[in-house]
Write a structure and sequence with these properties.
The protein has 19 helices and no strands. With 474 residues, it is mostly helical. It has one domain: Growth Hormone, Chain: A, CATH 1.20.1250. Helix 1 runs antiparallel to helix 5. The longest helix has 32 residues. The protein is globular, with a radius of gyration of 21 Å. InterPro entries: EmrB-like, MFS, MFS_dom, MFS_trans_sf. It is a multi-pass membrane protein. This is MFS transporter. It is found in: Cell membrane.
Length: 474
Amino acid sequence: MTPLQRRILTVAILASFVAFLDGSIINVALPAIEEELGGGLPLQQWVVDGYLLSLGALILIAGSLSDTFGRIRVMRIGLIWFGIMSLACALAPTGIVLVIARILQGVAAALLVPSSLALITSNFSGVARGKAIGAWTGLTGIAGIAGPLLGGVLVDTLSWRYVFAINVIPIAVTLIILAKITEPARTTPAPPIDVLGACLAAVGLGGPVYALIEQGRVGWDNPQVYLPLVIGLASFAAFLWWEARAAHPMMPLGLFRVRNFWVGNLATAGIYAALSLGPFVLVLYLQEVGGYSATAAGLASVPATIMMLAFATLFGSLAAKHGPRLFMTIGPFVASAGFLFLTTAVPPIDFWLHVVPGVILLGLGLAITVAPLTAAVLGAISSDQAGIGSAINNAVARVAGLIAIAMTGAIIGETLDIAGFQRAMAVVAVLMFAGGVVSWLGIRTPRAQTDAAVPETLTPPVNPVRVRKPDGAS
């Protein structure tokens, strides 16, 4: 790995880490936020889904911006805006202000993730790309799993507001490293931005999510619910119609004709819906039903973090050599078993007996799954579409997550109790299992990987990606 590649990988990990951390660290702080600002379960859902909504709605156009104006420039703007909105969340005086700040924070996060993955895919190739994506997956995955522990410590020792304020530290470090990386100027004209597509996507996602959250409070027959639902569904249909006809669509539908791309995204929907809903309900359950402190509830994520640290890069490398299909099948099955095991956590909850084994299985399943999944999706398309490809995959993941969170009330009922928790764990286990089945039935191993045992001189790589070296390197 060249010095430039090391810096690129570090920046990609740190930038995505910030975005993923803020999506998970908030879960353990929700009871404290609700206690200070009020609002009940709807506020808790909106604090999570407001972020996911703008992230999911805008990540597609952010991928286009990344490919058009440069990954470094887009990432720098995203980091600065994310820091500003993090401070706005930390200082929010009311629930409404907090939700608005979270929505705007999600806009910044949308700029970070596709740029990060696009930097990796355009600067690494072959097995090295698999290892890099594995490292990115493992270390950024830690943000999603270890976030509750960090959040719990901050909530119990300081305040829930520090959950947001702490973001300025990794943002500052990332900006310093980013300043040492330059990006070559474009040699072709930049395509126009699909503004209409972005607006239709935002309304198409926002309307149904708003309806799903608010229906638990006012019912489906209320105009406040069914009108946004209808408008949102109509807008999403119009979005698909427009993307099929636009000269420069922000979501090229032709990508979905690539088998591993569309199958990988279908598996992503089930896996990340489970990964969003499961931990969200678990940390609330441990605090509100199990009587755990925020820090103790956050400790439940540590075993999964250890598994991700230990094995994510290994499985990313193995998938690069042997193909992603087997790993994308076994991993979700193992994670599904972990969620099912958590249904045994009935008060009085024994942390070591009822929680830790299930979380270990979950972490192992994710370590097996996530890097091969990412590599399968992005490896199916050309490197010049890396930005929009990673944006689509991340949009699918975030949209699946926000819809799952929005349906929390319909799954667990008006209040979280033992039966509601067990229903939620069963639902996420089924979603995770479905992701594994889809992968087994649909994913195909690229021929370049099936021929991995043949000497490299006899089997040239397919569509090789040139690695850009720093000035002066041989």
